[in-house]
Design a protein that fits this description.
Strand 1 and strand 2 form a beta hairpin. Helix 1 packs across helix 4, helix 2 crosses helix 4 and helix 8 runs parallel beside helix 10. The protein is α/β, with parallel strands linked by helices. The termini are far apart. Helices cover 34% and strands 24% of the residues. The chain contains 10 helices and 11 strands.
């Protein structure tokens, strides 16, 4: 009965990517959920921010962004690649937007996947109240958690939200998670100094069981989406960090005894 109830739970997504080799181990299917509490200036998926179904111009043509689905519909796609998951150690990753904004749908989908032995991961900012996170933890094999900045005022200036709740949730979730990976989007003018990365790495090193940080260099791949949505791209002409700069930041983070990857 519980399984049948899970299969009928509805959520809103804007994309599914199969055969991904990022965002978790092995070959993965990534489900992108609509809706986010943050408005990060550099967001490469601006169509994910609004829960509402939108129209976006892409390649000169209008397309609808967002659709309502059931867990059963998503699982039909996910289970097609179970052989690849088993061979590679892969599985499903929930992304967004912010996965936890649709916590009921996420829980039902994750629980269904675990019943079939599928590895699970979520990308999250942990920006929701803890009561929305806690029921999901036992069904998640890997948390991929954005920690963007340790200064709350600067965090708010660039994302529209202070970071106290995020940091508190990181401390609580790391105590319960099977695997917790810190991810840092490296954004010029926001958090790309050695001191800022040092502060984040120091915090990560205090989290229970955290051994890995991924530094994700800023890119402009979302620019055309902003134009297609009729929105201003507020990062302007900010260039991506150089390879040399990323290597310096990597060495800085490594001083805290963590495995540090560029990308991931």
């Amino acid at each position: 009965m519980e399984q049948n109830k899970d299969l009928s739970v509805k959520g809103r997504i804007f994309d599914i990517q199969q055969f991904s080799t990022h965002d978790g181990p092995g070959i993965r299917t990534i489900v992108f959920l609509k809706g986010c509490l943050l408005r990060c200036r550099w967001c490469c998926n601006p169509e994910s921010q609004e829960y509402a179904i939108q129209t976006m111009v892409r390649g000169g043509k209008e397309e609808v962004v967002g659709r309502d689905v059931t867990v059963a519909e998503i699982f039909e796609t996910v289970k097609k690649d179970m052989l690849y998951y088993r061979r590679s150690g892969g599985g499903i990753t929930l992304s967004g937007g912010e996965t936890l904004c649709q916590s009921e749908f996420a829980l039902a989908l994750l629980r269904t996947c675990k019943k079939y032995g599928i590895n699970t991961a979520i990308e999250t900012t942990l920006s929701t109240p803890f009561f929305m996170i806690e029921p999901l933890i036992e069904y998640i094999d890997t948390f991929l958690v954005d920690i963007k900045h340790m200064n709350s005022e600067k965090h708010e200036k660039f994302t529209t939200m202070k970071n106290e709740l995020i940091l508190q949730n990181a401390q609580r979730v790391s105590q319960l998670a099977k695997n917790f990976v810190v991810r840092v989007p490296v954004i010029p003018g926001f958090n790309d100094t050695e001191e800022e990365i040092k502060d984040i790495a120091n915090f990560a090193s205090t989290l229970h069981g955290v051994k890995e940080i991924n530094l994700l260099p800023y890119h402009r791949l979302g620019y055309d989406k902003y134009i297609g949505l009729g929105r201003e791209y507020t990062m302007g002409d900010v260039p991506p960090p150089t390879k040399e700069k990323m290597l310096i930041l990597k060495k800085t983070a490594e001083t805290f005894g963590l495995t540090v990857n560029i990308g991931g």
